[in-house]
Amino acid sequence: MDHRVRSGEIAEDQVTALMESYTAQLPSSFFLGAAFASVIASLALKAQGKDHMALFVGQWVAPFLIIGTYNKMVKQHGSDARVAEPSGHGQGI
Length: 93
Fold this sequence. Notes:
59% of the residues lie in helices and 0% in strands. It is mostly helical. The chain has a domain of 50 residues.
């Protein structure tokens, strides 16, 4: 039995679509910059001897990069493959 989900089979909910509409407005460089700023902040906290806070802030790097990758994919591939384009758009008319 094949359990794979194919493009367009399952639609995203409106909460996801709303979040994607806001985050898609941010450039991908925002998330890369946030990750870089987390590294710098973590190093600064470590230099001040605040080891626990440095680890906490340093762990933000991966989520920022993952969210940035997700944001880029939404921009390139759209929010939901199931949503049809309005008639006449993208069909060479």
